[in-house]
């Protein structure tokens, strides 16, 4: 964003003195205030696509000036929200957000749940999970929450057994039974779809699956169940910004019937509205 200059003129009754004050603001100033465009950090697919739909079809009528800034990792959107470089972000789940805040001392809070991207197991080598050979290598995301979520998915489908109560904090060390002696390759989440040529199977986040031209509803060996799933993707802001009128408008638009229809039509079950 270009720096902008604001000029304020104060007319003093005593001498009709005019004082012009010019202030140059940075992107950070615009993002952290309550005027100007709302800059939202987002993963390219489907988050930025959903935001772009809102920007192109709903925002102007609602009086919202929306700017979408794309990021391909799961760290920068939160650090940028924390330091005020952006006004909000849209890319993560509540468990991931809670873990990120705890580990990084950040103060990011959820505004509204928008959609679920089912985590899935994919393979270029086999057509069914039971066809995985003994000693097969499975790639999984290496960040705390998504790794635990991936292992829970494998456990729910009978490939492994985990210690009771580990939840999304699970790591390979928490596996109590591994009848196929699966080996796990821990990778950055964005790298998991690219690893399919080198591993026997990979657990891939829904957004990265779609970016890699995978169709979760068709290509996954199995997917997370949507019912009762705590992993909806959410709009988030730095604590204290929840009442920003721009954020409230965006939250309303992201959970509108128009956005629900867009999600259903565009993603055909690979992304599911959470509202």
From TrEMBL:
Its main location: membrane. It is a lipid-anchor. Keywords: Lipoprotein, Membrane, Palmitate, Signal. It comes from the Bacteria. Pfam families: Lipoprotein_9 (PF03180). Residues 1-23 form the signal peptide. Belongs to the nlpA lipoprotein family. This is Lipoprotein.
